[in-house]
Amino acid sequence: MNKKGFVIIFSGPSGVGKGTICQELFKHPELNLAYSVSMTTREKRANEVEGVNYFFVDKARFQEAIANDELLEYAEFVGNYYGTPKQYCEEQTNQGKNVLLEIEVQGATQVLAKNINAVSIFLIPPSLAELESRIRGRKSEAEDVLQARLAKAADELPLQKNYDYVVVNNTVDQATNEIIAILKKEIAQR
Ligand code: 5GP
């Protein structure tokens, strides 16, 4: 009998480096990961690929997904909607995969309320100043959006207390290794 996988909720403020660390985690087949591609109404960034980073949709399609109960969770984040397609997550966990959800705090709360088999990890920057310099370095946002994302980060950081694990992203290697250790422990226990 195939053992069911679990859900990994991976949150942290915009710009903290979740994407980079996700890419590192997927280099480890022993973690048995599947990445949940979210649906969003946000504009595609130049380096993003449809169906890989996100499913980019308009508001009408997003509302249809809500109405059809297609989403495991969804939230509004700085003027755009983001949500996790339910079907993929169910299929993959049924096949024994551990499904990584890179989602913000409101969505994480919704998933945790569903009483599904999940572990939650919150990634924090060494400081807010460091976070600002990382978002600026990415050059993907206009100044007003960047300021809104920084203000959001300050609101989100206290919610780290609701997560099973908090990891500081000092360096990609250190944070990746800590998360790998957490996941290996969780895999062994479940
Ligand atoms: P970004 O626009 O920087 O790609 O994402 C903005 C925020 O939305 C990030 O904190 C990211 O983790 C979160 N996010 C991405 N996909 C989802 C999702 O499906 N659901 C929720 N609740 N948040 C998401």
UniProtKB/TrEMBL annotation:
Its EC number is 2.7.4.8. The keyword Iron does not apply. CDD domains: GMPK (cd00071). ATP binds at residues 12-19. It is found in: Cytoplasm. Residues 5-184 form the Guanylate kinase-like domain. PROSITE patterns: GUANYLATE_KINASE_1 (PS00856), GUANYLATE_KINASE_2 (PS50052). Keywords: ATP-binding, Cytoplasm, Kinase, Nucleotide-binding, Transferase. It catalyses: GMP + ATP = GDP + ADP. GO terms for cellular component: cytosol. One of its GO terms (molecular function) is GMP kinase activity. InterPro entries: GK/Ca_channel_bsu, Guanylate_kin-like_dom, Guanylate_kinase, Guanylate_kinase_CS, P-loop_NTPase. It comes from the Bacteria. HAMAP family: Guanylate_kinase. Essential for recycling GMP and indirectly, cGMP. Belongs to the guanylate kinase family. This is Guanylate kinase. It comes from Spiroplasma syrphidicola EA-1. The gene is gmk.
